Amino acid sequence: MGHKFTEKISSFLFEYDTPRMVLVHNKKVGLTFRLIQLVVLSYVIGWVFLYEKGYQSKDGIINSVSVKLKGIAVTNISGMGPYLWDVADYVFPPQGDSSFVVMTNFIITRGQKQETCPGHPDSEKCNNDSNCNKGEFLRRGQVVSGLKGTKSQCFYNLDSTGCILASVLCDLLLLNFLSNRDYYKQKKFKYVERNYVNSEKEDFDMSNSQGKKKSSL
After folding, report:
1. Helix 166-176 vs helix 181-188: angle between axes, to the nearest 10 degrees?
2. Rounded (10°) CA dihedral 95, 105, 160, 168
3. 177 within domain boundaries
4. Which position has the higher pLDDT, 145 or 65?
5. Residue 145 pLDDT > 50, yes or no?
6. Nearest to 217 by CA among 195, 185, 172
7. Which of 3, 134, 161, 208 has its CA 20 to 30 A from that of 107?
8. CB of 69 within 8 A of CB of 100?
9. Rounded distance between C-alpha atoms, residue 193 and residue 95, angstroms
10. Domain assignment present for 212
11. 3-state class of 179 per DSSP?
12. One domain for residues 35 and 114
């Protein structure tokens, strides 16, 4: 048993063999062999290297784009009165995946509207200066109260249900009465486009986090 084991070790360490070479003098066999080599070489060079570019390292890119419209508008329609529109009213959806729809017309349903002062109970509604705390500026949601003891600080809205939104007054002045109203109208509406590109393999990360603003709407 020990002798056979020693012979196997000796054969593995100190013996080697070479393949036998056979020279074939046949044109058909030689031509077939060269054609096979040519096909394999053409596949490696033409398909793998030139077409598929197998020598290059590839990695997928993670990309996301979101589009959001920003801006407010004021309308004064007969039977409806002054109305303030924001993104929640005229954009569907408010923030979409690289797309958005802007409402350009609407049908009025009489008796259904959003109040400018939705506060509850009624004590939160501002009718005169006595409803406001002296020396304090109060802001309940988007409703602006005033300063007690001063004139014209507690604004009435046009349908006498409470306080008017401050942005309504700003838009009425900027959009209709000031000399540079056309410039303000151009800058009023804009949409923000945010792009994010990431490649984990190449450790590449790019984003316009502030958003790309456009105001040509």
Report:
1. 120
2. 50
3. yes
4. 65
5. no
6. 185
7. 161
8. yes
9. 10
10. no
11. coil
12. no
